[in-house]
Amino acid sequence: MSRTSKQQRLTRLAVATVLSGACVISATGCQVALNGQTLPSPYYLQDDVQYFPAGPEFKLPREAAALKAARAEEKLNRR
Known about the structure:
The protein has helices spanning about 5-25, 60-79, and strands at about 30-35, 35-40. About 0% of the residues are buried. By secondary structure, it is mainly alpha-helical. Keywords: Signal.
């Protein structure tokens, strides 16, 4: 075998390895994070979806009431 045929053979083997690796990776169906996006697996349509009902729009009513009461008390103490 000549040197060029060995080099061509190695090049073909490397290309075939990379292509087969890409095929295996793309066919596994796992969740992938790509450029800040979380992309679903191919089986996301069969996945069970959990439903979380909407909660109150303002999440801190007690803290807001406590702050309002503290401001009112502070205002009374200043007089």
